[in-house]
Every structure is written in C-alpha cells, then in structure tokens.
Amino acid sequence: MTSRTAFASRVAPLAARYLVPLGLTALCLYLVVRQIGPIDAGAVWRQMQGQGAHAWMGAIAATVISFWSLGRYDAIAHRHLGTDIRARSASRAGVCAIAFSQTVGFGLLTGSFARWRMLRGLSPATAAKLTGFVAVTFLGALGFVISLVWLVIPLVPGFALLASAGLALSLGLVALAFLRPVARFGALRLPLPSLPAIAAMGLWAIVDTFAACIALYFLIPDHVPLVLSTLLPAFLIALGVALVSGTPAGVGPFELTLLMLLPSVPADSLVAGILAFRIVYYLAPALIAGAVLLFIVPLRTSVRHVEAAAPTGPFPGDLARAETQVIRQNGGRVVGDHVSRIAVVSLPQVAVGLFDPVGGDPGHAIRRVIDTARRENRVACLYKCSGQTAARARRDGWLPVRFAREALLFPARFSLDTPARRQLRRKIRQADKAGIRIERAGPVQPVAEMTRVDAEWQVRQGRARGITMGRYDPYYVACQIVFLAWKDDELIGFASFHESPREWCLDLMRTTDSAPDGTMHALINAAIAEAASAQIPALSLAAVPDLPLRGMQETGLVRFKRAFAPVWKPMYLCAPDPTSLVLAAADIARAVHWPEALAPAVDPFAPDPAPRKFGFALLRRS
C-alpha cells in the first residue's frame, strides 16, 4: 500500500502537467463552438482554397522571417549561458527546436530534446537551461511588445492605462537588470541578461511577432474588411494567452481569444484564416523540423577562443603596463593571440579592454575586445587607455573621451629639492619627527597587522572600490611590492605596488587612524628611492578622475598626488558609438562604487581553476 501511494504521489504531478494542457485545449474549443455556433466546414474549405498564390507565398515569406528572428534569439541565449557554440549552429538548432516544440507542445521537454539532438556536445541540462531561458525572456519581451502596441492601438477601452502600466513594469525590470545584474535566491545566483541582450531580444521579439501576424493577415480571406492595425493587437494578446496556456500549438486559447477580440470579423472567415495559418506557421515547420531531427547529423558547435584566465601568481615580465596585474582580482583575463593581447574584464553590460594592449598591434587588440563583447552579449569599450591607443580607436571609428589623468614619476630624475615639492618635503619631515620607520616588506608579509590596518581604513573611508582599484587580500598583495610604515612596533600603514621591469604602479594605500601626518608621503617617497636603485624607468601614482565638463576636481587624493609634482598623462574611455559610451561609463561607475564581493582567496601559485559557467534554471517556452 505504501509503495503504491508513493508511486501515485510521483506520477500524479507528472500526469497533471501533461494532461491539464490537453484538457484546457478541449475546454477552449468547446467554448469556441458555443460562441460562434455551427460552422459550415465546406464554406471554410472553399475560403481557404480561394486564397491566391500571392497570399500563400506572402505568408510563407513572413513565416521564414519570423523563424529567422527566433533563431537569432536562440543565439543570444547561448551567448548568455556561455556555451561557446557558434551563432549559426545555435540559430539553426533554435529554429528547429521552436518549430518542433510549438506544434507538439510540452515545450520544456520537446524544446530541450530538439536542442540537445541538434547540437553535438550540448548536455541535456544545458539544453533545458537554454529552453527555459528562451521561454521566460520571450514572454517578458512579448509583454513589452503587447504593452507598446496596445498603448498605440487600444482595441478595448481602458486598455491604454493597462498598457502604460505594463510598459512601466518592463522599463522597471530593465533598470533592475542594470542596477542588480545578478539575482540571488539564497545560495542560487542567476546572472540577468545584459542591456544589449535585452535590447536585441526586444528587437527580435518585435520582428518575430509582427512577421507572424503578417503571415496570418495574408491568409485571412480577401473579402474580410480587416486592417493589419486592428489584427495586430488582437494577435499579440492571443499569442500571449496561447503561450501561457501551454497547450499544443496554443490550440483552443488562441482561437478563442481572437474570436472574442475580433467580433466584427465573420467567424467562418476567421477560422479559415487561422486554419491556413496553422498549416503554414505550425504544421509545415514542424514536419520539416521533425525530419531534420530524425535524419540530421548533429552540428559541429564548439568555437575555440584564444584567451587565458588571469594568472593568480606573478605576471610575466613583458607587461607594457604594470597596472594590468589588477585583473588578478577583478575577474579579468588576457585575450588575443601571437599578434596582440589585451586585458579584458567583463562587467554585466560591457566587455572592458583595460589600459593599452599587453603587447602587439593596438588595432588587432581592439578587434579582440569587440569579439569578446559580441560573444558575451555585451558592448565593447576601452578604459584608461593612452592617447596612442585612443588615436588608433578613433581611426577605427570609435569615440574617445578623456576620462582620467595618470600621475607619472621618473625615479632616476626625482628630487625633493625642487620648489614644486616643498609641501612634500614638509610632510616627510613631519613623518620623520614622529619617528616613523619605513621598510620594504620581505617575502613573508605581516598579514595580521596589514589586515588590521585595512579594516581600520575601511571603517574610516568606506568599502574599497573595484575594477582598477585593488582591494586588500593577502594572496593578492603577496605578489606585489609592499612598503610598511612602523611606529615603534606597531604597523600604522602600508602601500603596495604592481611591478614590471618597465614601471611600478601604486595600488593600495592604507593607514590607521593614529598614523601621523605625512606617513603615506613617506611610504611613497621610499618606494621612489627603491625604484631608482632598481633602475625602474617609471613609477605611476595611478589615475584620478578627469571627467568631461567637470575636469580634474581638487580632491584630497588629487592634492596628495600633486605634492609629488608628477607629469599628468591623459587617459581615455573609448567606445564604438555614443550610446555604447554612455552605457560603458554607467556600468564602470556602478562597478567601481558597488563592486562584487571578493571571491575567497586562493593560493597564488596553485593551478588556475576551470572557468565557471552561468547557470539559469527556468520555466518553459520552446
């Protein structure tokens, strides 16, 4: 008895899941018959036969356009989930999966099977994630399209207000995707689509639904006085109801909704058009997709991308810019090949090429950033690049904007005995009088003391910022040059530097509340002297904002760096167009001020872990 009960408890939900849509189909068809009364099947057949060749060819062409746009939608889903599958293969599999599953029904099961069957190497779990992603995001995009169309063409009085609410909700969700790009449900972490992906999905949803509506419009008998602007809002609502119902091909709910919203259209004519539409848009594509699934050899899918994760240990010595090593902490990696390489960090909306290329041709490196952005549903940009790289980007049609200024020193020529550095001399004397002792940290750093100093600093200054500004982590700092400031036996401050044979670059500056005035000046001065002894050509004090229209504001950080009388070098933010530039600036600002929590520290000399893929467990839509 117990085993029988357990079996029933497992089977009942499964049976309900597949029997309920069939029951709903029967109910809706019954209501259709009740609403329109008996229909002359002969009259319906004659109206279908009376459609000219131009109507059938127009409907077929519109259907092709609709399914082509749905294939592009699938390519976006693959890029979001990081499957590394070619866009062409992803689109073909998506077209086949949707053509098959929208007619057979049970979209999550049939759509997942079709994608798994079509794409070699795709796991069933990933196929299910793709199907779920397409289902949920398409319904969201359809809701936006319905709201937009019903706001312009309200068939029913009062629907304009409802459409305005739907449009506001859609825009609110887009804003949420920007402000909170990762949704968290307990331990579950779901990266949301990027704004470029959302915009593309909205575009392809418009193309798909408008083309499908045009296919139906072609097949409505010519003598029916129905204009496309009247059919479109009714069609979109009927399509939405059909998708939510989960019935095979939306049979029943689709017809019932259209008949209710278009009462002025003769029922037999509308039924004739819907039957013809189901032949062209559902039956024919399903038969073709079924044949493909039976006989096709699975597509070759994988794409090999030339990129490497950021080393967790010391970088190679050929870096043109030492600050590139910040990608050990911000999730960046080096992309490129033997021609050129550049550090890239992927933010939710943009793929950011950091600084100048690590090596090679700047134009080739820019193209690698573009390829990375396209592969990840992001826009491309360059951040904190030099004037030379910005000039090359301009020649390629990009828009460069001066965004920051870097403070550069040349240790071999650095001297305190200049009028421009009189304030620096005074600060260093104050530190000397306070008994501050500066030393370079050895291989074993005082981690406990440094952690305490960083904690005090964060209480005073707030949470450390991200992207190109490092955050204290023992393993991260272990690969840097570190100078320590002691007062008696207490550590009161430290400064860390990225290192390469060509330059040192200031990264972390931390002091305690009790640190005397001039402590950080003394730390930097000691680093300059050490760099001069090591014959390092340049030492960067890193950059400060130099924003358009605002310039370089006289903040405390700017005054601190001015005391060293550096050479100020402009740095640029570059993007392909003004919209991408604004989006890149906003996304970088968000990531700087509200960075993601640091991942748990790892051994800097351990092998790189395998890259993690995004997960997305969702509902259904073929």
Annotate the secondary structure layout.
Elements: H1 2-36, H2 41-49, H3 53-81, H4 87-104, H5 107-118, H6 124-152, H7 159-179, E1 182-185, E2 188-191, H8 195-219, H9 228-245, H10 253-261, H11 267-295, E3 307-309, H12 327-330, E4 333-336, E5 340-346, E6 350-360, H13 362-375, E7 379-385, H14 387-395, E8 399-409, H15 422-433, E9 436-440, H16 447-461, H17 474-477, E10 481-487, E11 490-499, E12 503-511, H18 519-533, E13 538-545, H19 556-562, E14 567-575, H20 578-593
Parallel strand pairs: 6-7, 12-13
Antiparallel strand pairs: 1-2, 3-4, 4-5, 5-6, 7-14, 8-13, 8-14, 9-10, 10-11, 11-12
Q: Which structural traits does this protein have?
A:
disordered C terminus; single chain; 622 residues; Aminopeptidase; 16% strand; two-stranded antiparallel sheet; 3 domains; alpha+beta
Structure description:
The protein has 622 residues and is an alpha+beta fold. It folds into three domains: 2-19 and 54-295, no CATH class; 307-405; 408-568, Aminopeptidase (3-Layer(aba) Sandwich), CATH 3.40.630.30. 53% of the residues lie in helices and 16% in strands. It contains 20 helices and 14 strands. It has helices spanning 2-36, 41-49, 53-81, 87-104, 107-118, 124-152, 159-179, 195-219, 228-245, 253-261, 267-295, 327-330, 362-375, 387-395, 422-433, 447-461, 474-477, 519-533, 556-562, 578-593, and strands at residues 182-185, 188-191, 307-309, 333-336, 340-346, 350-360, 379-385, 399-409, 436-440, 481-487, 490-499, 503-511, 538-545, 567-575. The chain has a twelve-stranded mixed beta sheet, sandwiched between helices. The protein has a two-stranded antiparallel ribbon with strand order 1-2. A hairpin with a 3-residue loop joins strand 11 (490-499) and strand 12. Helix 2 (41-49) packs across helix 11 (267-295), helix 3 crosses helix 6 and helix 5 packs across helix 6. It is a multi-pass membrane protein. It is found in: Cell membrane. This is DUF2156 domain-containing protein. The chain crosses the membrane at residues 15-33, 53-70, 90-109, 130-153, 159-183, 195-220, 226-244, 281-299.
